Amino acid sequence: NFGTTDNYNTEMFERFHIDFCKEGWYASNGRNERPQMISWLTRREKVASFQSYLKMSMEDEEEEFSHSRFRDHRVILTKRPHRLHQNILDVMQNHSCKGFKKDLITYLNSQLAHSHSRGQLRNMDLPFSHIDIYHGFKFCLESLGNDVDFDQLEEADFVKAQPPVSHKAGRFDTVVVMDDPDCESTGLTDPLAYVEWYTPLKSAAEDYHEMYTVKKPLLSSDGSLPGKVIPLSCIRQTCQLVP
């Protein structure tokens, strides 16, 4: 009744049934098949995991990090923005992001050769009043060492940030962001994204469900959630929150 989860479809689980059940059945002799299927799948996963380890060990780790994570991160946007020449105040209202203008000023200030102090920023305004808006983008996921990709196909992820329209509810996806002082800045030539933060993750997962707990942080003095303008390439993947 509720359809599929965001960024998933029913075809994915049909694919899993083929990879983990049907192929294992064909590899068995048809008698007492379940232990044979489990053994076959376990061996296949171990071989794929070892292949992934060999690939990682043969590459220069520093070179791979500097290019993969920041320079060669592929982001796919639509040919034209979904909304052209939108007033920043309207964007803040439609997207319910009260702190956007303040955080955009902070980001632009960080890109200056001689940045201004926080006190000076309070009295500064943007040199423009309109921006172009994208309501979503597609990007290629990074290859993780513990992922098993039998088909060696590149996986893509989709992010939506779409405000409500008439009777249609808005959608703002949750994402994992690479936020670190050592992250390389891409300057002002690449697309930017605005994110509102949850509370920082703890050093360890919760004991009773082995997952991390996040919640909305306290509001700023102006009533806005803590946020930040970041290069689009700093977004690593989407994630699902469980209430």
Output the keywords.
about 240 residues; alpha+beta; four-stranded antiparallel beta sheet; two-stranded antiparallel sheet
> How much helix is in the residues?
25-40%
Percentage of residues in strands = 15-25%
Low-pLDDT runs: 60-73, 144-152
How far is it from the N-terminal to the C-terminal residue, by CA? 20 Å
**Cα Rg:** 22 Å
Major sheet: order of its strands?
Answer: 1-4-5-6
| SS class | alpha+beta
The overall strand count is: 10
Helical stretch tally: 6
State mean pLDDT (0 to 100 scale).
Answer: 79
C-alpha geometry: elongated
Give the helices and strands as they follow along the chain.
HHHEEHHHEEEEEEEE
**Main β sheet profile:** 4 strands, antiparallel
Please explain how this structure is put together.
About 9% of the residues have low confidence. The relative contact order is 0.15. Strand 5 and strand 6 form a beta hairpin. Helices cover 32% and strands 17% of the residues. It has 243 residues and is α+β, with helices and mostly antiparallel strands. The strands form four sheets. It has a four-stranded antiparallel beta sheet with strand order 1-4-5-6, with no helix packed on it. It has a two-stranded antiparallel ribbon with strand order 2-3. Strands 7-10 form a two-stranded antiparallel sheet.
